[in-house]
């Protein structure tokens, strides 16, 4: 324990120092990354300056020319200038011209955003005293580097005719280029529902601010998050940069070597201590546990406890064997009780339903013919009313006796389904053979001559039977329903007869 505590303290100290050094390096790399992005903004700003002092554009804002729009403000012209979109605004910030290079799926986020909101960027005029600046905007969850400026003539003179806004998307292509140039892995993550707060623009010289960086240390790398602020001062996205934790990996490697030596010593001592303990006791305990687990997992309480000897563990194993034997006997009795009708000794409805499902599954796999017989004692309620319930119970026992005498095959299953209703499952018989068995049962029961004054004109107890042969389309429900319908038909036709479904 002391060795392990010492290792933990060493690991904590080395990780603290590694984490501090890694954060310093990661912040420096983020600074380099933001300077690279700043350089991309300067490229956009350089393109802007050449357009903002273009006399033809200056004149176009004074008197818009369709020919100039068609020839100079095209998608091809933007592509050549390496920008993704362009907006021309009047002095009040109202859009007068828009041009945008469609994305891979034909999308034009800036155009769609401007048209949907019904306004452009009226705050540009108040953003900068010089009427120019650079920063970022967001349209349809996409972030772009944007620069804007007043439009003047080629000499930089004359009254401004409005504003020129050009931008370049911070898309996957640009991220890949910057990553290849800097060797830094990073991504741009959207910040949804950013509130709009109009204030001074994020100018080129103020892109990187150390106090805004969030540092999240993870197992294999450090993630730095830096907010991208729009021209209007609200956070619209984050730059997320991953920096590998090389110092932590070196510290882990050194720590792992020390740890391996210490653990080897601990394990050696542990193995020697275990060998000094009673190995025979451990093995016998494991065997007892495994045998008990097998007995419990079998759900049938089968299996034996084989641990032997003359000590306390052997005594425990002996009592366990006796307990398992008692539980096995009681489980079997409970199973028999749960599947046997107490009055008649026949299988009950639960056992009947299990055999019925098994019979249908066997028919589906092997096309073994089978049939179901349902039967009711005729006018049994009158019999109970006339002779009393004890006599009725005795009559039901006579029904069970009749079924046992008529059904000799092990494949045949008679059962009491409830009240005076009985059922028989026959496997390996055709419909005609099942009908013959049902007729034999009917005749045998009538031949018992059980007096029943309420069943005229015979004056003896009889039964009605319905027979249904299993078909390929049958389920337990449909087969039972067809046999029950046949039984009902037998009753409707005068009782004491067999009817085929």
UniProtKB/TrEMBL annotation:
Gene3D superfamilies: 3.30.70.270, 6.10.340.10. Residues 279-332 form the HAMP domain. Keywords: Membrane, Transmembrane, Transmembrane helix. The chain crosses the membrane at residues 260-282. PROSITE patterns: GGDEF, HAMP. One of its GO terms (biological process) is cell adhesion involved in single-species biofilm formation. One of its GO terms (molecular function) is diguanylate cyclase activity. GO terms for cellular component: plasma membrane. Its EC number is 2.7.7.65. NCBIfam families: GGDEF (TIGR00254). This is diguanylate cyclase.
